[in-house]
Amino acid sequence: MSIRWTYAFADRPADLLGRACAFWTAVTDTRLSEFRGEQDEFVTLLPGGRADACVKAQGVDPGAGGAHLDFAVDDVPDLVQSALRLGAGIAAEHDGWAVLRSPAGQLFCAVPWHGESVRPPVVRGSRLDQVCVDVPPSLYDAEVAFWSALLDGWDSTPGSRPEFHVLKPPPGLPIRILLQRLDEEWPASAHLDLACADIETTRARHEELGAVFVAQGSHWTVMRDPAGGTYCLTGRDPETGGLPRAGS
To answer: Low-confidence residues of the chain, pLDDT below 70?
Structure first.
């Protein structure tokens, strides 16, 4: 079983989806596809040129929203069975694709691969390239073991801090995974991360587009988009995804 492509999904309250899409298309230099789904709840952010999309958005029930990953494969049932053997659960089954739940409760999807292969370029010194899964401490080790086993062939390594674990995809795949151990027993959740050549420059641009500052970390800045979803601007290299010195 080989992951052929990865998508990062921004999940935002359905009544704020338009606001979220306006923001994320601006910061990723993309345009919207046609909306799809029974309630027009899904949309893809389409890059220009020959690049393939790797970011999508979904309207969800009222609440904080979040993020999730889609894994595109040749054989969806094979990925589903592999995930189930490793401790995942089925959240929903659809015609040709499935929603699963990791051991910590983080949703992700197994979807068919449609030939995507060209990674979108860096945009104004930044690139949306990572989904961070925030995991309660009691489930962290199990979550690291699950993702490391499921994503066979990915580079699974400790991150730059004790609470981080990084899963780096093979060259060419556009979205990494960062597992972050929380300090308290909050339910698992996820958010989007951007790699930035200059965090302050990217922050200023995002604030012009309606985002607001939330908090400052050691090499990241927490922001909130106009639809209320939190995300991070990180000081990683937009080309490689790694920190300038730590390499993760």
So the answer is: 1, 245-248
Predicted confidence at residue 227, as pLDDT, reads 96
Do residues 69 and 131 lie in contact, with contact meaning Cβ atoms separated by under 8 Å? Answer: yes
Alpha helices in 39-93 (DSSP H): 76-85
> How much is the pLDDT for 30?
98
Provide the residue type at 148 as one letter.
Answer: S
Distance CA 223, CA 211 (A): 7
Comparing CA positions, the residue from 144, 202, 137, 219 lying closest to residue 178 is 144
- Give the containing element (helix H, strand E) for 66: strand 66-73
Bridge partners (DSSP) of residue 90 are 100
Residue 108, pLDDT score: 98
Query: In whole angstroms, what is the distance from residue 28 CA to residue 45 CA?
Result: 8
Identity of the residue numbered 201: T
What backbone torsions phi and psi does residue 26 show, to the nearest 5 degrees? -65, -45
- 3-class DSSP state of 30: strand
Angle value at C-alpha 242, between 143 and 12, nearest 5 degrees: 55
Residues 225 and 23 sit within 8 Å (Cβ to Cβ): yes
